[in-house]
Amino acid sequence: MRFFSLPDYQLIMLNWFHRLGAPRSFYEISGRLLPVLWVLSGLSILTGVIWSLGFVPEDYQQGNSVRIMYIHVPAAIVAQSGYAMMAVAGAVFLIWRIKIADVALQCAAPIGASITFLALVTGAIWGKPTWGTWWVWDARLTSTLVLLFLYLGIIALRSAMENRESAGRATAMLALVGVVNLPIIKYSVDWWFTLHQPSSFSLGEKPAMPAEMWIPLLVMVLGYYLFFFTLWATRMRVEILNREFRTDWVQRLVVGS
Amino acid sequence: MFLKTIRRDLAVVFRSPAEVINPLIFFVIVITLFPLGISPSEAVLREIAPGVIWVAALLATLLSVEVMFRGDFEDGSLEQMLLNERSLVSIVGGKIASHWLMTGLPLTILSPMLALMLFVNPEGIRAIFFSLLLGTPILSLLGAIGAALTFSLRRGGVLVSILVLPLYVPLLIFATEMVKAGAAGLDYTGYFYWLAALLSLSLGFAPLAASAGVKISLSQ
Q: For an engineered disulfide with B213, which of B111, B144, B149, B179 has Cβ 3.0 to 4.6 Å away?
């Protein structure tokens, strides 16, 4: 047993990790944290929305349509890092077989797909007034579309497999393969775009924004992340109850109260 | 074991040659549809030829990759192979290699003729040939991951495409750019190296991922 040679703080960390990894304690801990998360994400999104829609100055070129940025950019950011987080959960599940990581992976996919879809739709709405079309085969748009396909692949594979254990491992594998490919896809698409069309729509290169514009953006990004985590934890709790419905503690929780 | 698997798979296939020929017929038919559907004009066809040939090659590979493990899984021989041998990776590698020999290589050999029918110039034809030579093994390698994850499912067919097609995006971009550069008379060695890099990357990882996928699917 190598564990005995670990220093105390690492033992404490490990212990804590194992506790969070057990479905029951995750359920209890997240139950205590969730109200806080809901309030925080609601507050930050509300603040961000009011700030960006009401008080941020108009862009000198784009006018009021620049406000779509505050919905769109955070969605795009969370869509990408959501996939990375999902893949990390997949790796944790494949390596250490921690059940909760599988739950995390399954629950992150639909949320990630929805947020990617939101990023695409808001991008299209933003594109109409600024570029004049709903869609261009711009590098970022295309790679976000491919990201959506990757999310959909995970969801499709999950729903096609009946056995939960192997479905979990298969989707984890696929998420890992996807995360290896994601940078390659991103760079190749970037490259393809720059080869074809010189940056006539150089929205990609952001001018240095004034602080009064990027601070609300930061608030919105924070809000989106918090909202993502809140939804994630909520879904995971439901999934845990679903999976563990035969255990004592769930029975007591549902029937007893 | 690697070579044994290849020899065995080839023997199985040559007893029913339709399996080799069908993807090729599909490849040719898809390419024929484009002049009919878009325009028979020389300028248009020359413009779209690299994309058409590559997309057709991609679809033809996907169609055939789905059965890479399925036949052996259904008659139980896949499990027997795993029981017999220690190295799953070499079996999976052999299956991938024989899949390439049966689809990727014939497609590549057939492609100059089709490129000629789409009015590609000789330099472009050479580029198409080399891009397919380097690219079709990648198609088989990545396709094997999707096939490995889905062979035990009843409705695996479309699923493989959904899982694998997004992964083909970089390959499609580099390969068609290579052909376009070649047809325009430019130097395309840079693209060639890019494809080679993608090939070595997938050679390194895809057999491992595919054999992990086979294990997962068999444990179901």
A: B149
